[in-house]
What does this fold into?
Amino acid sequence: MNERILVVEDERQMLRLLGMTLEKEGYRIVAAQTAAAARAQIQAAVPDVVILDVMLPDTSGLDLCRELRQHPATSAVPILMLSAMGQVSDKVAGLKAGADEYVVKPIDSVELVARVGSLLERSRRLRGQARAEPATVVSFLGSKGGVGTTTTLVNVAACLTLEGKRAIAVELRPELGQLQTLLGLSTGDSTRTLFSLEPARIQSTSVSAWIVRHSSGVQVLPAPLGIQPDAHFEPAQAMALVAALKELADVVLLDLPPCPRPETEVAIASSDIVLLNMEPTRLGLESAAALAAYAKAHARPAAKLLVVIINRAPLATPVGVRQIEERLGWVVVGGIPPAPDECARAQQLGAPVVQAAPDSTASQAFKALAQGLLRLTPQA
Ligand code: CA
It folds into this structure.
């Protein structure tokens, strides 16, 4: 078992007492005497339980508690608050800040051990339930450079987030990132650092530290900006990443490069849905047919193979839905109308189109597409 408990307490004597009591029960103890030290410990590895004193030298324990609740990596970690204050109003403040339990000093060690045990039991049960409803993985492929695949992915992720789903938009294109530009983020080199890790170290706890939450609520794992000539990752790393992301989300949206690479094939093989984005032109159809054959060769037999038609400009004679479905043998699940002004405005704001221009026809189309995908996911 050996669950890790982070104890955040500035008083040395209390820290020692708590540590000794819990170590006797077989738990591993990590100590932090300030909120800043606690953040660093959590960044290194998310603990199984946090014991948090209300009075800390740098930040109030209540504020740190709220902070942990807001962060996706720690939102579900059980928190036990410690306080010298025994008033009902203090306890309410602790619980309102997101604590699961509240223990008043002086600590009764039997009570403490019992409460920690029940918190761990509860989180084990919750994790078991989470596993019963596996996340859906959707791979996004663009049939030809620059059809708007990343834009579609970001907007579908935003719509799913609005529906209350935990959606993570992941850019598996380590050679050239666009997500950060699209969303006005500047978070350095998330996937680049991740892919320097051994596959065994790519786990939900380490991955969650790289996930960025955009102001729209969308969670993203972006690739580094600018061209990275040697950037690639191993199939085993891609497999570990997808497995880790499935523990953190209801829907994982993977932005894949259109070129045949071993790690792309692993991602396709891990997907429940493969979404091919294409322009309704002759060239678009030919390029989509080639990519569809490639994707189908690597997709699981049960995977749903779908097409989204992206109209970047009004066309006099677009290739029709029936022709596309006949040629590819894939079902067309949605179509995005031309929206150059809305896309430009969204980029200027660093926001998804559905946030920047929520009433536009493009936004309606993104919402309809997200709804269509949700109907195909098991937990919808
Ligand atoms: Ca204290």
In short: The chain has a mean pLDDT of 88. The radius of gyration is 24 Å. The chain has two domains: 4-127, 136-374.
